[in-house]
Amino acid sequence: MHKKFLLAALEQARLGQGHCAPNPCVGAVAVQNGAIIAQACHRGAGTPHAEQLLLTQIPPKTPGVSLYISLEPCNHWGRTPPCVDAIIQHGVEEVIFAYLDPNPVVAKNNSTEKLRAHGIKVTHYPVDEINEFYKSYAYWTLTKKPRVTVKIAQTLNGKIGREVGERVILSNALCGEFTHQKRAAADVILTTAKTVRLDNPKMNVRLGQKEQQKPVAIIDRKLSLNKEYSIFSTAAHCHVYHSHNQEVSYPNSTLHFIPMVNGMMNLGAVISHLGELGYHDVWVEAGGALFSALHQEGLVHRTYLYIVPNILEHNAVSAYQQGGIFDRPHSVSWHTMGDNMVACLDWREN
Question: Which residues bind NADP(+) per the record (predicted)?
């Protein structure tokens, strides 16, 4: 039964994806007599944690209540009080959590010992799906760098579009919906000035009838964009990375100077800075140049290749602009999207 209710807590945690960084996404459910009687998720940094929201739905000292939490409850003050203290004061009898918080402050204060000292039964019950869910948070906690996921849509002959003429939309509606789901779950979307100029994209989330703004990072080495592009109004905020000396202002944006390395933008420094801003997950949508460079420098953790049953002429734009970008050890899984296929490449990590 533990796994069943912890997966219910995970579903709550997923509701906070893309909103909580630099905090982890956390979900919690309260169970009494084998049934869920309350559920909650963390909605963003500075707002009440999932456990605190959950406890407001349950009268204090309600008998026979167990809390199932996706992540070890916090035991220190941040912008909100410790969840361990709230659980103790509320008279909860049992806590089951799935993932040990890698935050050294949480580990040092030992939530389990604190709860057990007040007679609360505590169980750490790992679940594979939850371990996977917290990969980015754990990686960011240990390295202060985000995990990077890149997607690109290509024809059977490896082309992604034409140099001139009308924009070519390759992937189907199912892949489009998948893209927006990944945008929603990411903390920030990374793109390039070239992509903005060619496509004038919104880079927001459009699922159903709702539109959601996301933070967007733009690599614009020469600060060449026009202020009228849609992205400056459709993004929650733009982080513009450049190597230009001249002062330029863009609406709804913060500019970040990144020194050049061998005449190229230092992509490692860009990714590291996104981690310093507190982002755990970076979703990349751009052309073949950035796609190839990120892979060449070993900065990608997961790659999605949308493979479309189509052919573009031999002089169309290639998805792959450097050799050897797929040489790193990796595993591949395949996902059918109607008449498109998605290859998911997970790059082996140390």
Answer: 153, 195, 199, 287-293
